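Our example copied in:
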Amino acid sequence: MQSRGFTLLEVLMVVLIVGIMTAVVVLSVNFDGGSQGLQNAAEHISDQLARFEDESIGREEVWGVEVKGVSLRFWRLDTEQGRWVKTQRPWLPAEYDLPSGMSVSLVQDATSSPVKSQYDPLSDTIQPDIYFMPTGAVTPAELELHEGDLVRYVRLDALGRLSVLEHPYAPQP
C-alpha cells in the first residue's frame, strides 16, 4: 500500500517550525516605523531645554535658543557687555547637532512676545528664537523634528512646560 500525503507528526513539525520562525521575525521587527531615533532626539532636545530653563532661573540670567536647521545654538545674555554669548557649561553645550538625516524647524513662534521684542535689538547677528527669563517666563514655541517622512514635535508653553508629541495638535500630556 502506497501512502499519499503527510502524517500528522510531519504536519505538526512544520507548523511548529513556521511558528518559531514567525516569532523570531515578529520580535526582531521595529514596529514604530524606525521612529525611535527621532523620538530619542526629541526627548534629548526637551531635556536640554529643561536644563536650559533651570540654568536661566538658577543664575538669574536671560538665555536664548537659536534654531538652525540641523542644530540648536544656546546663548546667554551677558548684561555687562550687552550682547549674547555662547553658553560655556560642560553639562550644557553651546550647540546641539541633530543626528545625521534629521532636521529641526521652528513651527510656532511668539514673534509679538514682549520678552522677544525686549531683547532682539541687542544684536543684529544673533537673534534667539526662544527666550528663557530668570522669572521662569519663556517664549512659547513648537519645534518640528524631521527624519524622512517621520515627524516629532517638542512643544514649550509660556509656563515652561515641555512635551514631546507625535502630532502638532495633540493635547498637552
